[in-house]
Amino acid sequence: MIVWLNGTHGVGKTTTAALVQQLIPDSRVFDAEKVGEVLMDVYPELPDTDNFQNWPPWRSLVVETAHRILDYTGGTLVMPMTVLVESYWREISHGLAAYGIPVRHFVLHADQDTLRLRIRDDSVMGPSAFRFSYLTPYTEALQSWLAREAHIIDTSAITPAQAASEIVASVNAS
Fold it and tell me: Residues of 95-107 as b/e, b for ≥16 C-beta within 10 angstroms?
């Protein structure tokens, strides 16, 4: 199984993923962003883009990598990764389904003011124009398709540990 943690930058996906992994036996965290980093190292470069998710190989390689990891290890993969383009989500989720891999899709959500504060005050990454630039596309995706495709966890007033507990309770209930 895959527990996919979606949501915009600064919402706490990476922190929450590590906590979810600790609560689900035989689970591992797989950050699909690493696949994008591999593709960014191709030389000569792939066509210019502002987001590696726009490269079709990223989407298929995420599916293949997740499948191969699960085939090798079994268990559960916890995947913290922002995907805001519905057609990209469909491509990934259908690819995983073709391998018979169930996906539990969660969106970690926070209101805009909370997100702006978290991004501004991030002591590890610092303020980031890139991360701020995804707030509007996130809101648009949430209103158009994300809210109907995933279980929403509002992190505005809860800790990452509480969010992780809610995710694991939902996974265990199904």
Answer: bbeeeebebbbbb
Going by C-alpha positions, the residue among 51, 39, 112 that lies closest to residue 81 is 51
> Other CB atoms closer than 10 Å to residue 133's CB: what's the count?
11
Q: How many CA atoms lie within 13 A of 137 on its CB side?
A: 14
Burial 15-46 (b: 16+ CB within 10 A, else e): bbbebbbebbeebebbebbebbeebeeeeeeb
pTM over 0.90: yes
pLDDT of 125 > 90? The answer is no
Type of residue found at 18: A
Domains of the chain in sequence order: 2-173 (3.40.50.300)
Could you give the C-alpha distances from 146 to 5, 10, 128, 131, in angstroms and in order?
A: 12, 17, 24, 19
Q: What is the pLDDT of residues 126-146, one digit of tens each?
A: 778 888 889 999 999 999 999
Judge contact between 26 and 76, C-beta under 8 A.
yes
pLDDT band at 43 (very low <50, low <70, confident <90, very high): very high
